[in-house]
Amino acid sequence: MEADTATTIEAIHKSRPQAVVYATGGGMQALSWLLTMPGASNTILDARVPYATKAMGQVLSSEPATSASVETASDMARAAYKQAADLAAFGTPLMGIGCTCALATNRPKKGEHKVYAAIHSGAATTFYSLTLEKGARNRLQEDAVASRLLIRAIADGCHLPEGRSLDLALREQAGGAADAVEHVAVSEEQLGDPLEALLAGRVQTVEFSGGQVVVDAPRRGRIYLAGSFNPLHEGHRGMLAAACQTLARDPADCCYELSVGNPDKGVLPIDEVRRRLQPFLEEGLPVVITKASLFTQKAALFRDSVFVIGYDTAVRLVMPKYYGGEADMLVQFAGVHHHGSQFVVVGRVNAEGRFLSLEDMEVPHQLQDWDLFRGVPESAFRNDISSTALRQSANSQPS
Questions:
Q1: Element (H, E) at 336
Q2: What is the enclosing helix (H) or strand (E) of 155?
Q3: What residue numbers bound the domain in which 186 lies?
Q4: How many domains does the chain have?
Q5: pTM given for the model
Q6: Alpha-carbon distance 201 to 196, whole Å?
Q7: Beta 18-24 vs 44-48: how paired, if at all?
Q8: Which CATH number do you get for residue 86?
Q9: Tens-place pLDDT, residues 58-80
């Protein structure tokens, strides 16, 4: 490893972003360099080499039309970004990195020798492409060039200046003459306002956590309190904390889910979305915004997750009349079960002062067999604050 490469990787490992790297066809030395430098666990969450076509299809959910292309590198980076979100904690800066190459092999190639890399950060994707001079290097040397380009791209993704100084050509002396340095083409694609993209249907989720904005990367295996949060209040915070305690889960796994879609009322205006979002930003609470108004949709987005719901919501959730009949209800819950999701029910006090909990509900036997519901004991949570009462109180205040 060259000294400038080692310096760049050292700076990468000292920076905050965490990454998943998918590389195929080249850039293999970059993976070795990244993983053998001290501090690799600060940066690399996962690294894969999907070499076979079927392996690439598993990473991208479909086999690409062309393996070595800027489009495939971009798709790999986006897939890597989603994997990074699954593996990292809320509030962590994330990068997805894709690299795909067509390099020298044991037979002559008709096409050009090319390197494509992409860095995806949610709201933007940066593309890198490099054409190598055929016959100027052997396979190992071409892979070294591809690897240095990949390291430069990662350094750029970490907003580090070190990557710019890398000598990509790795000038090989031949008869006293050095190869020319090839031109690296760099371009960027910006998403724009993530919330506007969500409302327009271009992305499915926008998460705000720890000062980071995570776009279109729903995290699986977490605990979500779904609601309209109009307004966010202490009862919501208590519900999520009680569910986390009941499940013996790390509070860092918990997040709020604000749905801006409603089957009857449509999608909230963006100004209203920003108004409801603001308290989360002010308090530094993680929240993911979606248009998923139904729990079947939420379960499909946030697989293997637990959804925290109040008693009244839970009662309505198991009433066949809201589905057009019991058979249709069971079909919907079968989808939730298929996606590995469950519900935690937080009780409330009724007008007579009695605490109503999961034990007071009539849950169909089929749903009991699927083990979809779990209750929070009264001792863990009892808060009688309601969003409706708070809104009425706020509206009654003199302006």
A1: helix 326-338
A2: helix 139-157
A3: 3-190
A4: 2
A5: 0.88
A6: 9
A7: parallel
A8: 3.90.950.20
A9: 999 888 888 888 999 999 999 99
